[in-house]
Amino acid sequence: MLPKRSYAALAALAVTAGALGGAQAATAGQGGGGAHGPGRGSAFQRTATYPVFENRPAGADAAEQTVAEISATSEDGRTLVYTDAAARRIGFLDISDAGRPEGLGTLSLKELGDAEDEPTSVTVVGQYVLVVVNTSASYTTPSGRLDVISLKTRTRVASHDLGGQPDSIALSKDKRYAAIAIENERDEEATPAGGEEGDLPQAPAGFVRIVDLKGSKPAAWTTREVALTEADGSALPVLAAAGIAAPTDPEPEYVSVNSRGQLALTLQENNGVVLIDLPTGRITKAFSAGTASVDGIDTVEDGVLDQTGSITDVPREPDAVGWIDDRYLATANEGDWKGGTRGWTVFDSRTGKVAWDAGNTFEHLAARYGLLNEDRSENKGTEPEGLAIATYGSTRYAFVGSERSNFVAVYDIDNPVKPVFRQLLPTTNGPEGLLPIASRGLLAVSSEEDDAEAGVRASVSLFRLGRGTPAQPSVVSAGSGDGTPIGWGALGALSAVPGRDDALYSVTDAAYDTTRVLTLDTSRTPAVITRELTVKDAAGRPVGYDAEGIHARPQGGFWLAVEGRTGAGNQLVRLDSKGVTRQVVTLPSDVAAGLGSQGFEGVTATTDARGHEVLWAALQREVKTDPAGVVRLGRYDVQAGTWSWYGYRLSTTTTDGDWIGLSEITVVGDRLAVIERDKLNGPAAKIKRIYTVPLPKSAAPAGRLPVLAKTLAHDVLPDLRATKGWTQEKLEGLAVAGDGHLYAITDNDGLDDSTGETVLLDLGRSRTALGRG
User: Which residue among 347, 381, 627, 633 is least packed, with the fewest CB closer than 10 Å?
Assistant: First the structure.
C-alpha cells in the first residue's frame, strides 16, 4: 500500500481562487504547505463540543429547549458567556481547559425583568457582562434594555433603557464605546399600505444606540441615539442617495468597529451598509450591498444534488459584518425576505464597491464536504449568517458560518481582496455565534438549533489552532466532470473495491431521489470521493433506491441491500459495472409480512473458486413472528435462488424511546461482522458496536432460526467520542479494505435531523481492530 498523502500534500488538488464575482473552487482536502496558518503547517483542531442543556438550572427538564446563540469571553479568555433566547437566560462556561468545558450555571432574565425578555447579544468589558435584551410587547411598540452584569457575582449592577428592540452589540477597540443595533424588526405577517405581506416600510424605524463607557460605575454610563431617519420619519438623504431599500424603515442588524472607532452597520432587510463615527455619532457613509448573480448552484428542491442552477440579480442582504482592517470590511450574505447570495463579500469602505465576492464557492464547499442541505436549495441555500475576523500570530483569518449546512469556513485574509480558503470546521446545528479567542489560539462556535426529540441539541464547540492534521472532516470530494465538486451525503454503507488496497465504495440512500455509487480514495487524508456512478433501473433510467448496504462483486458490478417502506419493498438488487439493474431478489412473503419500515440494512457475499455466490443480508429489526430481541441474518444462495435464516440476539436498552438494531454486515475471514447500534446520539449514545458471529458453511435447516453466538469485537463509541464532536447516531457502514484496514462510517441523513457531519473511521488492521490479532 502506498503511504497516505498528508493534509498538506492535498494542496496539489487546489484550484486557484476565482476573480471577483466568478466561480472559485476549494481544495479537495483542507489545504497545504508553509508555516503560519491552516494549510501552511497549522490548522484548527476541534477540542470539545459542550451541549448547553447540560448547563441548565437545577430541576429544569433536560428536554426543554435551550440554545447558545451569541457568545463572548472574559478578558482572560477563560470564562465564556452565551445568550440563550429560548430559555430567557445567559449561560456561563469555564473554558480554562479547552478540552473539558464545564458549566458554571445560568442567570435568568425572567428574574431581572419579564418572563418574555430575551437576550439577543452579549459582550464583555473589564469585569462586566453587557447583555442586550429584547423586551418588546409587540412589533409596533418595540423596547429593550442593556443589562450590566458583574462577571464575578453574576448580579445586575446597572440597566439602561435602549428605546427600541436591540439586535447586536459591539465594543470599540479602545473599549470607550459600545454600539448597539436597534432593529425594530418588521412583522412578517403585516402588510404595509401599497405593499405585500411582510414588506417594508413598517414603523417604527430602527436606529443605533451608542453607550459611552466612561467611568468605573456602569450606572453612570450614558447613551445617545444615532437616528437613521429624519425627525419626521422621512428618509435621510445619505441613505436615499445610496440606494438603500425602503430607507424610511432602516432595520439595523449587525455591528462591528474598526481601530479608528468607525462603526460598520448592516441593514439586512434594506440591503445596505452604514458607516458611523462613534465619538461624534456622525454618519460618514452609506452604500447598498448590491446584487449578485450566481451560477453553478442547486436551486431546485427535488431530492437531487444538482449544481447547475443559478440566481440572477439577487440582493445580498448581509447579516454579520466584520472589519478586516480600517479600509476593508466583510459581510455574510444570509439574505432575508428578498435576497441572499449564498456567499460572503469584501467591500472597500472608501468607495462602497465590491472588492471580492465568494460567488458560488461557499455553496461548493458545502457540496464538497457532504453538507449541502438539499432541502434548502430553493431558499437561500447554505445561508451564510455569522462572520468574524481575527488575527492569530501573524495571520489574519475570516470565519464564515453556514446556518443551514452546519459548518464554519476558515479563510486566510492577509490580502483582504484575495481571501484563500484554508479549512472547514464541522459544527452542530445552526452555528450562530463565531467567537475568536485569539489570545489563547481558540475559536468558539455557539449553535442555536435545539430539538431534544430529534436528538439535535445546541452546543458550544471549541477549536484550537495548532500544528498537525485535524481529525475532521474525514471525507471530502473531488471535482465532477463539469468542474463543480461531487455533491454527496447519506453514506450509510461501505464495501471494499476488488483489486485495490486504498479504496472503498459507498452508496447514497433515500435522502436523495437518485441513487449513486461513490468511490472513496483512502490513500489521502481526508479520504476523497473521486467518482460517482448513477444507479439505473433495468431500462437504463436513473432510479432512487433506499440503498442501505453495498457489496462490490469480484466478478464485476454490485449488490445493493434496499430497504422498503413496507416489508415487501425490501430487495437485494444486482447492478452491472455501469450501475444498471440486472437482477432483483425479494424477500419470502412470510418474512416480508412480518417487517415494517425497518428492513434490509446490509449485504455482503462470499464467492468460491467455482464462482458459487452466497449473499448474507442483515435485517435491522425483528420480524414480528420471531422471538423478541432476535433479528435475522439472511443467507441467499444466488445459484439456487433460495433463502435460509440465522438469528442474532440484540442487546437491550433501558432508555425510553430507544431501540437497538443492526446496520451493517460484512464477511471478515471465517466470521460475519455486524454493526449493532442504538438510536441515540450526543452524550446519550451508548451502543455503537461491532460484533462478530461464525460464518455458517451451509444453509440453516428449513423452518428453524438458529441463533449464532456473538462476540464483541470492537466498541466504536470511544472512537466516535475521540473526534470531540457530536457523537453521531447512525454508525452504518463497515468494510475491510484491500489493505486489511477496517473502516466504519456514519450516515448524515443528508442533514435531516442531523448535524450533517460524516465520520469515516480507520480502525486499523482488521485482525487487531476486531480482537483477532
Answer: 627
Instruction: Tell me what pLDDT residue 145 has.
Output: 97
| Closest C-alpha to 359, from 484, 542, 521, 271 | 484
Chain centre distance of CA 160: 37
Cα–Cα distance list, 470 to 38, 43, 48, 678 (Å): 10, 7, 13, 28
Residue 595 has pLDDT above 50, yes or no: yes
Count of H-run helices and E-run strands, the chain: 5, 50
Closest listed residue to residue 739, CA positions, set 578, 508, 527: 527
Residue 158 has which C-alpha cell? Answer: 446597572
Question: What's the whole-model pTM score?
Answer: 0.94
pLDDT in tens, 692-701: 999 999 999 9
Q: Which of 661, 665, 654, 656 is nearest to 678 (CA)?
A: 661
Burial 356-365 (b: 16+ CB within 10 A, else e): bbbbbbbbbb
Contact 88, 118 (CB under 8 A): yes
Where residue 78 falls (left for φ over 0; alpha for ψ -120 to 50; beta otherwise) is: alpha
Structure confidence by residue, pLDDT tens digits, 18-31: 333 333 333 333 33
Helix or strand (DSSP H, E) at 718: helix 717-721
Work out the pLDDT band at 10, boundaries 50, 70, 90: very low
Say if CB 617 and CB 603 are below 8 A apart.
yes
CA 632 to the chain's CA centroid:
35
Alpha carbons 563 and 545: distance in angstroms, whole number:
8
Q: Which residues pair with 180 in a beta bridge?
A: 169, 209
Q: 111-446 is classed in which CATH architecture?
A: 7 Propeller (2.130)
Residues in Cβ contact with 689 at an 8 Å cutoff, skipping those fewer than 6 apart: 651, 675, 676, 677, 712, 714, 715, 716, 717
Rounded Cα distance, 553 and 532, in Å: 17
pLDDT per position as a tens digit, 270-289: 999 999 999 999 999 999 99
The strands making up 79-84's β-sheet, listed across from edge to edge, are 71-73, 79-84, 89-94, 102-108
- What is the side-by-side strand order in the sheet with 321-323? 321-323, 328-332, 344-348, 353-357
CATH (residue range 488-769):
2.115.10
Is residue 73 scored above 50 in pLDDT? Answer: yes
What does DSSP assign to residue 317? Answer: -
Residue with cell 412578517: 188
The Cα-based distances of 268 to 627, 641, 765 in angstroms read 60, 63, 53
What ranges do the domains of the chain cover? 111-446, 488-769
Residues 510-527, mean pLDDT to the nearest whole number:
97
Instruction: Give the Cα separation of 148 and 581 in Å (integer).
Output: 67
| pLDDT tens digit sequence for 85-98 | 999 999 999 999 99
- Look at the alpha carbons of 230, 235, 239, 242 in this order and tell me if their dihedral is positive or negative: negative
Handedness of CA 27, 29, 31, 32 (dihedral sign): negative
